[in-house]
Write a structure and sequence with these properties.
The protein has helices spanning 2-11, 17-20, 25-37, 57-66, 69-72, 80-89, 100-119, 127-131, 134-154, 164-168, 172-181, 187-206, 210-215, 267-282, 293-296, 322-336, 346-357, 362-368, 375-379, 386-392, 405-408, 413-419, 421-435; strands spanning 221-226, 235-242, 253-258. It is mainly α and 436 residues long.
Length: 436
C-alpha cells in the first residue's frame, strides 16, 4: 500500500527505517483519519503523461490542523460524537465527501500489509489490535453514516441509487426518443447523438460498464448467428470483447446482446445507424484497408467524430472521454425531468432492474453483466445466458417464440455493395491475394 508507506515516510522521518513503516494502531488511526477527511480526488484513469498524487502532504496537514488535539492523539479514545463535531465544525469538508469504500479499502490494505509483515517476521503486532480498536471502529462508523446526515442537513434527494433504476425504468423509452431526435437537423451533431443512443442501448441490453465501452476498439466487435433447437429462427448475436476495464484484471470480459424484439430499442440496429453516419461524416473508410490489421485494428469504437484527413491522422484511435456521453445523457434526463444518480452507467443500472422485474434467473443476469465473475467465467468462457439475453432483447424468457426477420433477411446484394463498398473492395483484394 504505497500511500500508507508514503504517509509513514512523511509523518515519522525520525523513526529508524526498521520501524518507520511497521503497521501499528496509532499509525493506522491517523492514516484512516486523513483518508476520511481528505479532499476528494479526480476519478477515472490518469491520462497519458498525467501523474496522480497518492499521499498529499499539504492536504494531510490541513486535516491535522482542523482536528482537535484530543481527537487525533495517538493514545486514548475518540467517540462518534467528537468525530462528527469535527466534521460539522468545518462545513467545507462536506462539499465533497469521500465514500465509505475509500476508508474501507485503505483499512483492508493496511491489514493486508500487516499480514505481509507477519510473513517476513518484521512485525509481531496482532491483527486483532487494529480490528478491536474502538477509535478506528468509531471513525469508520462516522464515515459510513455521515452521507445520510448531510443529505438531511442540505435537503438532498432521498431516492437511493439502488431503488431509482426501478422507478425510472418505464421512462427509458423517452430517453431513447430524445437521443434519436436530438440534433437530427445537423449532420455532425446528429451523428454524435446516434453514437450516444447506441452507447445507451448497448450498455442497457448488455449490462456493461461504461468505461469498458469507451476503451473498446472497433476490431473487438464480433457478430454471428446461432441456431438453437426448438427456435424457428436463429439468434443474431453481437459481442464486444472488452480487454480493458475497471474490473477486468488480466481477463477479457464480454458485452453480449442479440437483436431486440423492438427495433427502436435494438442496440444492434443502433450500431449500424451510428457507424453509417460516422463513416460518412469522418471519411475514415477512405484511409482504411480491412485486409491490413495495422490499418484499422486500433481505431476506437467510440470517437469524437472528427474528420480523418490522412493515413497518418490517428485521431480516431484516441479514447473518447466518458464524460462526453455522460454529460449528454444528463442533459436529456434533466430536460425530461428524470432524476438519476447514474449517467455513464445508466444502462448498467436500469438493465438489471428490467431483468429482475421479468423474474429472470439472477445468475444469468450476473453472468450477462460480468458482475463479480469467478475465475472460470472470466478466463475460460464468455458464457451466453440466453434466457437473460432473450428478455434483454425483448423476447420471452422461454424458448419457442423467437421470430426475428432481421436475423434471417439479408439486404439485396446491390444494396450491400452500395452501403459497404469498402468491405466489398477488401474482399476483392483479399481474393486476388489468395489466388496469387
Amino acid at each position: 500500500m504505497l500511500e500508507f508507506l508514503a504517509f509513514c515516510e512523511f509523518k515519522y522521518p525520525k523513526l529508524p527505517p526498521t520501524t518507520r513503516y511497521l503497521v501499528d494502531e496509532p499509525k493506522t488511526f491517523i492514516f484512516l483519519y486523513y483518508q476520511a477527511y481528505r479532499k476528494v480526488r479526480k476519478r477515472g484513469r490518469a491520462k497519458k503523461g498525467e501523474e496522480r498524487p497518492t499521499f498529499d502532504a499539504s492536504d494531510f496537514e490541513r486535516v491535522l490542523n482542523m482536528a482537535p488535539s484530543d481527537n487525533i492523539t495517538e493514545s486514548g479514545q475518540t467517540t462518534v460524537e467528537t468525530t462528527e463535531q469535527v466534521a460539522r465544525a468545518v462545513p467545507e469538508v462536506y462539499e465533497k465527501l469521500v465514500g465509505f469504500d475509500v476508508i474501507n479499502q485503505a483499512y483492508q490494505a493496511i491489514v493486508q500489509l500487516l499480514h505481509q509483515q507477519h510473513e517476513d517476521n518484521s512485525n509481531r503486532m496482532s491483527v486483532e489490535t487494529i480490528k478491536t480498536s474502538r477509535r478506528i471502529h468509531y471513525l469508520k462508523e462516522v464515515v459510513r453514516k455521515r452521507r445520510a446526515i448531510e443529505k438531511k442537513r442540505t435537503f438532498q434527494e432521498r431516492i437511493s441509487h439502488e431503488v431509482n433504476p426501478y422507478r425510472i425504468l418505464c421512462m427509458m423509452k423517452k430517453l431513447e426518443v430524445a437521443l434519436w431526435e436530438r440534433n437530427k437537423s445537423t449532420f455532425k451533431y446528429g451523428a454524435i447523438s446516434l453514437r450516444n443512443r447506441f452507447f445507451f442501448l448497448y450498455t442497457k441490453q448488455s449490462l456493461s460498464r461504461g468505461e469498458s465501452g469507451v476503451m473498446a476498439d472497433l476490431s473487438e466487435l464480433i457478430d454471428f448467428k446461432l441456431q438453437v433447437s426448438r427456435e424457428p429462427q436463429p439468434y443474431h448475436i453481437l459481442i464486444l470483447q472488452m480487454t480493458e476495464g475497471k474490473t477486468n484484471g488480466l481477463a477479457t470480459l464480454f458485452g453480449r446482446v442479440m437483436r431486440h424484439k423492438n427495433v427502436d430499442m435494438c442496440a444492434y440496429g443502433a450500431l449500424g445507424l451510428y457507424l453509417l453516419a460516422r463513416f460518412e461524416l469522418t471519411n475514415e473508410l477512405k484511409y482504411m484497408d480491412l485486409t491490413k490489421n495495422e490499418s484499422w485494428f486500433n481505431i476506437k469504437l467510440f470517437t469524437k467524430m472528427d474528420e480523418v484527413t490522412s493515413v497518418m491522422d490517428k485521431g480516431n484511435e484516441a479514447e473518447l472521454p466518458g464524460s462526453n456521453y455522460a454529460s449528454a445523457v444528463k442533459k436529456e434526463l434533466d430536460q425530461l425531468g428524470i432524476f438519476s444518480h447514474h449517467f455513464l452507467h445508466l444502462g448498467r443500472a436500469v438493465g438489471p432492474a428490467e431483468l429482475e422485474m421479468e423474474e429472470v434467473d439472477p445468475q444469468g443476469t450476473k453472468t450477462l453483466g460480468n458482475f463479480n465473475p469467478d475465475t472460470q467465467e472470466k478466463r475460460y468462457s464468455i458464457k451466453l445466458p440466453l434466457s437473460s439475453m432473450r428478455v434483454a432483447g425483448g423476447w420471452d424468457e422461454l424458448k419457442g417464440s423467437h421470430y426475428s426477420k432481421r436475423a434471417v433477411q439479408n439486404p439485396i446484394e446491390a444494396l450491400q455493395t452500395q452501403v459497404f463498398s469498402v468491405y466489398v473492395e477488401a474482399q476483392v483484394r483479399e481474393s486476388v491475394h489468395i489466388e496469387a
